[in-house]
Amino acid sequence: MYPILEKQVLSDVTKLIVVKAPQVARKAKAGQFVIVRIDEYGERIPLTVADYDREAGTITLIFQEVGKSTMHLGTLEAGDELATFVGPLGHATEIENYGTVVCVGGGVGIAPIFPIARALKEAGNYVISIIGARNKDLLFWEDRMRAVSDELIVCTDDGSHGRKALVTEPLKELLEERPGEIARVWAIGPGIMMKFVSLTTQPYKVPTIVSLNTIMIDGTGMCGGCRVLLEEGARFVCVDGPEFDAHKVDWDNLLARQQFYREEERLAVERWEHECRLEGVLREGGA
Amino acid sequence: MSDLTQRERMQIPRQEMPAQDPGIRRGNFDEVALGFTEALARREAERCLQCARPECVEGCPVEVLIPQFIRALRDGDMIEAVRVMKVKNGLPAICGRVCPQEVQCEIKCVLAKKGEPVAIGRLERFVGDYELARRTCPLDCCEPSGKKVAIVGSGPAGLTCAVDLGREGHGVTIFESLHAPGGVLTYGIPEFRLPKSVVHGEIDYAVECLGIEIRTDHVIGRTLTLNELLEKFDAVFLGTGAGLPSFLRIPGINYNGVMSANEFLTRVNLMKGYRFPEYDTPVKVGKRVAVVGAGNVAMDAARCSLRLQTLRAQGTGENPGEVHIVYRRSRAEVPARAEEVHHAEEEGVIFDFLTNPVEIFGDEHGNVCGMRCIRMQLGEPDGSGRRRPIPIEGSEFDIEVDTVIFALGTSPNPLVFVDAEGLERTKWGTVVTDQETGRTTKPRVWAGGDVVTGAATVVSAMGAGKRAAADIHRFLMGEASW
């Protein structure tokens, strides 16, 4: 069992947990992910490493409550334990001094873009970061991102904080205003955001790396559920990725595949919310 | 009855094993074959002629002392039957259920020459189940040797190797990448064929008796590497199996509803998807399922699909749907165990022989809606000795499907070969070993099972685990150098 040492509520639906898992922390690098299972009944879900502390033997994860499993995970507190915690999985980000780079983090994608931006900064890059979310409440780690970036652009869809824009807007301006200057772009966020970042950078031929988060079970190449179509054929996100050349990804296929269990996910959430309500009623009744 | 003449023994018919009725079992995941009663087992044991030179033993990859255990069973001495069994086989309740006995021990039975062989597999299962329920004969181990062995993978090869080394007094640690031990026994073979209570009962029993440590959630190649294991252990055995699924190289394999049998079976078995939403992992099949391939894995996938369809339709009055096995060769070449094919047909799986998919079609949402197939005919024998299937030109036809499951065989997972220089592999990705000893080209590293042979059977992996354990023991005791 893997104890949760610390928990922070970053927004109503965004939570941070620090988990004790020395064997994972010993090896984890920016760009890699872990597979988490809450208990005997739980799913195995992939979550990207947001931070690690080799000495303390801990891994920091940030997740958004989007389905039953993440909602359940969000109810756990420091002192609770996870049944499964495997990793680090996937390839680490290829960090070099590329010159000027742009790191784009959307929504909960801010968490995994942070260690990448930090590593790029440490490698001597001039790091421009763009972080965005639907609204102010969903933003987090602005200070941490600022600390590892030479320039930081913050935006929200509704303008409640920073600039009122989608992340692709400042990105396009950078590409326009600084032609030939930007060597590489990283983008992590919802599938649809990564698709549009890819479409934004493609005309400028700036190499763009995305970190894909697909449905998977084992995370070691066994199930093939995570396969993504690239120009050269199908690849497994878990062992060939999770980072890929954004310009080669078949985005429509990726987005369609994420919908396959939508009906089951809806059912599971309904059942979970019902259980939570029942529990609430029972607790109040007992008190 | 023990003083029957040989003639009288030969007149006893092979005893049928009770099984769930096909119409009922297609609506549940409970075990299909119910096992012999003691009376049936003893009756079947009477059929064994106790050959002086038993050929059945030669047919067994782990050389179970077959006539001796059957003799003890016949005499009603169950404790002796268990003891004899465990000399060679630490996992009889598993082997009795999943070994292809018809091409191993039973095919060699002298009775098979004129009629039906002794039901060795069913008797083995009877002995295994007896022992699981009563634990009469804990495996004992020698004095601790002070040597440490790492076993990578807790499937049939790794478990067998671990048990044999544990018995010799070596300190054994098994590393498993998933959250539960058993490898393919846990994630691949369904509950109705091999109940997980049997798998975990058998594993727990052996592990407790021998003080073996199992570390789950450890992916070798990621969490730790082979070279790191070699720093801490005196020897390493790789029994990582063949976990990588294959997909046909045809258009449309990424539509929703196309999946590997590995994914489908892992959702069903390891994650208990058939009990969704009680368990969180969903699994779904449509009304028209095509399983491509005809090995044991294909039969398992087809029969799980049928059960999911039946469970879904229960109480709705709706037609549950259809499950097809699509296979490019003919019935004679079907590689699955005979009993599995028989059970699948009884349950209503439809076999489309000499049929090969060439393209999968999807609808506007990216979901599978059809598959184009081509008819095949059999030509000259190929490298495998089976007649090569050849497409019949112009014979393409379309079938309506909403789920396609590929069960086309698997290859070794390359993750374990990260940080493992010097470990030679074949062009198929399997590990090169010495057949007798299981030694790889990397000092102090042995390998066995599917990671060496490519996808094969549970018991052949156990045989390899056993041979490697014997050589590892000789090496650790200084009786053999590297």
Plain-language structure description:
- The complex is a heterodimer of chains A (287) and B (482).
- Chain A has 287 residues and is an alpha/beta fold.
- Chain A is built from nine helices and 16 strands.
- In chain A, the strands form three sheets. A seven-stranded antiparallel sheet of chain A has the order 6-1-2-5-4-3-7. In chain A, strands 11-10-9-8-12-13-16 form a seven-stranded mixed sheet, sandwiched between helices.
- In chain A, helix 5 runs parallel beside helix 6 (191-201).
- The longest helix of chain A is centred in the C-terminal third of the chain and has 25 residues, at 262-286.
- Chain B has a five-stranded parallel sheet with strand order 3-2-1-4-16, sandwiched between helices.
- In chain B, helix 7 (92-98) packs antiparallel against helix 9, helix 10 (156-167) runs parallel beside helix 12 (196-210) and helix 14 packs across helix 15 (296-313).
- Chain B has three domains: 6-134, Alpha-helical ferredoxin (Fumarate Reductase Iron-sulfur Protein, Chain B, domain 2), CATH 1.10.1060; 148-243 and 411-476, FAD/NAD(P)-binding domain; 247-408, FAD/NAD(P)-binding domain (3-Layer(bba) Sandwich).
- The longest helix of chain B is centred in the last third of the chain and has 19 residues, at 458-476.
- Chain B is of the alpha/beta class and 482 residues long.
- At the A-B interface, strand 7, strand 14, helix 8 and helix 9 of A face strand 5 and helix 14 of B.
